User: Fold this.
Amino acid sequence: MGQTSNPKIKRAIVSVSNKEGVVEFCSFLQEEHQVEIISTGGTLRTLLDSGVKAIDISNFTGFPEMMDGRVKTLHPKVHGGILARRDMDQEVMKENDIKEIDLVVVNLYPFVETISKPETTLEIAIENIDIGGPSMLRSAAKNNKYVGVVVDPTDYELVLDELQKNEGCISEKRRFELAAKAFSHTAAYDTAISNYLSADQNKDFQENIFSKYQLKEVLRYGENPHQKAAFYVDSEESDNSGISNSSQLQGKQLSYNNIADTDAAFECVKEFEEPACVIVKHANPCGVATDKNIVEAYEKAFASDPTSAFGGIIALNRELDKETAARIIDNQFVEVIIAPGVTEEAIQITKTKENVRVLNAKKLGPQVKGHKFLSVTDGMLVQETDNGVVINEDLKIVSKRQPSEIEIQNCLFAWKVCKFVKSNAIVYTRENQTIGIGAGQMSRIDSARIAAFKATERGFKTTGCAMASDAFFPFRDGIDAAAEIGITSIIQPGGSMRDDEVIQAADEADIAMLFTSIRHFRH
Assistant:
């Protein structure tokens, strides 16, 4: 007669890289449920040193570990014991002296930790690819009808509770859930290896893209309340600094829109070396400024567009200090503040508004080369991150009038901001402060008019200001609109079939025009 599909745990194989809690877990298995434990290598030594009885895998299989550890669990007594169907494989098990293994507790050495060490060569990396561990996990997960599998130390307590409630058994539902988690664990492991070996081929784009992201949290909802959403982060260690590896010090849970806008704000503020503040609303900067200190940079950014700043995201490229925190809390309603460091005095101030989300970024790092992903129906777009940088030497002056040094600096400031504004993007700036931004319009002239309207509505003096355009002007109308409000310098990529007409418009208005030969579309 076949055995039940909810068997009692009698025998477990334990081999873990992360040894957190493993001694306590195995002690409970042994003392409370008389589970026989089989183990390997460092895990075996840890258990024995802590007084937990465990059988060496070589004694269990009757076969020695060999090939410098490459072969130790790859044996029929291991995989037969794990894969055996309890209701139909009893005879072959008896013939081959195979004992049932009811629980597999394995987690794999993080491959990324190996390859992140500067001394790691390709040969060393390959030697650190685990074969036996993933094989046992896959075997146990496949046979989850009879076998439990644990890859995460945080699940030890859950499994022990199951054993207590079910008289030494793990429920079928729970085994299925643990199996799914085990396959995710091996998939992430294989992904790390695949990405490493593919990168070593020096290809810009691979034949296949393997997911390397892990769930950080399930969000309250997506862009709208009727949409479910979650936040996934790169499972590999990174030196980059941003929303994904920042720590939340206070406030409500971040929303989908909070995360998207905070990412846009922090990536923008990282462009500046001087103390800078960027305020973002609905994925677009509405106020950007630099100054001699961070509190004055914030004041200028806020003054750029106080109306749009309401409910915005604030990113700083300096530590959030007491004075800046006080100004922010007094000035406006803010959803998120992110900075590379937050003082204790600043936190005491922001705590007076308990819903404000305060994020401490890992550090303030430069833009890092990587890839951006955009999903489409049944597909995915992948591109390199936009790390295009323009410096003085890259500029081509195409107008009759040569720009002054101040005009050049104003143009470069506007150009940095323009990179983070949705196309079609027009940015007006003066003295390292945005005064008008036109974003996301279907025509460039409309963006120019919106930017001008915002600047004049708020009483900014537009005469002598700089204008940036993320792409070339298809017609001269954008230049004419800028001339009407006194713009004296314009920075743009150039490359239009009507460049001559556009340059002529600039010359007629005595505007200095600079070409960058690089475009910054942002969709």
